[in-house]
């Protein structure tokens, strides 16, 4: 198995750029606000597929939805093609021709009373498409792998397989010829035999159309097969990022190591993390992972001289670029011991 290969470089200007994004939801019964996204920098370049991975509840879906204007940020900045993402209804409508969302459950995305044709044509009608609607729908279905497309026009969602329904959802996104797809667990509800087909489709669309994509997933195997770059998220913040092969073959953050250890092909025993992820309304001080960290619990952080820093000092926010980075005091200390000094590219910026 080989990982996806990027066709972009770190010098290519970002299509989508996020800087210090924060999203907080009001707490219940006087509780502090829940910091669902708590300082995220993230860039996605033209033609690049970035996988955003992490446990359920870490803020992945909230971040993804905010990138499409569906969840307003509390603070921070989102730029698309160099321009700030505006919040007016007209500006968001124009933006959503260029950036489309593909959800996990095609059953929830498709109206059971609408034919496939109407489901795919809906976006064209919302945006006042002035061309040949039938040709546009047929082209989108064909690109999504439903051929001959006319055979599917009058079919309803219940008449399709799960993989076919997901292809209809993808066709509905493609019909507007977007530049960016945000796919939230796009194959999680599909049988294993169909998952590979949908992933191959996304890679083919990138190759043929130059699409960029953010793929939200808890599945590191999926990230390996489809992504150019991976960003690992924990408790509202990205804690490790870099090219997918680099991160997934030589993970530096203890959380990334734990996620990878449970894969069937992983060497050694799985790492069992203690406890549950903390409440996002009560993010612990110091490294937000320290209460569950197997490196701290096993004494390795103490031997590296960073145990106190793990408990008291925030490792900071990783920058959004394509360089390999990790927000971990122990990883920095280990890198410094191996090279004589930690490199600047490894370090996070201080949290505000």
Task: List the SSEs and their pairings.
Blueprint: E1 16-25, E2 34-44, E3 49-53, H1 60-67, E4 75-80, E5 83-84, H2 89-95, E6 99-102, H3 106-109, H4 116-126, H5 133-143, H6 162-174, E7 180-184, H7 192-209, E8 212-217, H8 220-226, E9 229-234, E10 237-243, H9 244-249, H10 254-261, H11 294-297, H12 300-303, H13 307-312, E11 325-326, H14 329-339
Parallel strand pairs: 3-8, 3-9, 6-7, 7-8
Antiparallel strand pairs: 1-2, 1-4, 4-5, 9-10, 10-11
Helix pairs in contact: 4-5, 4-6, 5-6, 6-7
CATH class of the largest domain: Alpha Beta
Distance between the termini: 41 Å
- Known CATH architecture of the largest domain: 3-Layer(aba) Sandwich
Strand order of the largest sheet: 6-7-8-3-9-10-11
| CATH fold-type name of the largest domain | Rossmann fold
| Beta-strand share of residues | 15-25%
Helices, by number, come to 14
Rounded Rg: 21 Å
Helical proportion? 25-40%
Average of pLDDT:
91
Oligomer: single chain
Low-pLDDT regions = none
- Which of globular, elongated, flat, extended, rod-shaped describes the shape? globular
The tally of structural domains comes to 2
């Amino acid at each position: 198995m080989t990982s996806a290969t990027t066709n972009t470089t770190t010098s290519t200007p970002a299509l989508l750029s996020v800087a210090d994004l924060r999203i907080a939801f009001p707490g219940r019964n006087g509780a502090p606000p829940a910091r669902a996204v708590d300082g995220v920098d993230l860039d996605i370049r033209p033609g690049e597929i970035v996988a955003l991975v992490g446990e359920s509840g870490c803020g992945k879906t909230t971040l993804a939805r905010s990138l499409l204007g569906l969840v307003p940020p509390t603070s921070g900045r989102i730029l698309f093609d160099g321009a700030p993402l505006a919040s007016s209804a007209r500006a968001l409508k124009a933006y959503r021709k260029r950036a489309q969302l593909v959800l996990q459950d095609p059953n929830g995305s498709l109206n059971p009373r609408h034919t496939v044709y109407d489901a795919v044509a809906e976006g064209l009608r919302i945006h006042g498409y002035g061309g040949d609607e039938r040709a546009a729908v047929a082209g989108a279905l064909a690109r999504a792998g439903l051929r001959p497309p006319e055979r599917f026009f009058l079919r309803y969602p219940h008449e399709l397989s799960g993989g076919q329904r997901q292809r209809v959802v993808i066709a509905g996104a493609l019909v507007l010829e977007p530049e960016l797809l945000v796919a939230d667990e796009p194959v999680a509800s599909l049988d294993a035999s169909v998952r590979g087909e949908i992933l191959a489709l996304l890679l083919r669309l990138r190759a043929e159309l130059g699409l960029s994509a953010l793929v939200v997933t808890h599945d590191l195997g999926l990230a390996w097969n489809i992504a150019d770059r991976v960003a690992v998220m924990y408790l509202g913040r990205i804690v490790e990022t870099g090219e997918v092969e680099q991160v997934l073959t030589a993970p530096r953050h203890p959380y990334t190591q734990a996620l990878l250890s449970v894969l069937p092909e992983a060497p050694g025993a799985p790492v069992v993390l203690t406890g549950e992820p903390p409440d996002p309304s009560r993010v612990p001080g110091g490294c937000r992972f320290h209460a569950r960290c197997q490196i701290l619990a096993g004494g390795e952080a103490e031997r590296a001289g960073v145990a106190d820093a793990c408990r008291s000092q925030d490792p900071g926010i990783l920058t959004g670029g394509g360089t390999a980075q990790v927000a971990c005091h122990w990883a920095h200390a280990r890198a410094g011991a191996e090279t004589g000094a930690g490199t600047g590219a490894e370090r996070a910026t201080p949290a505000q």
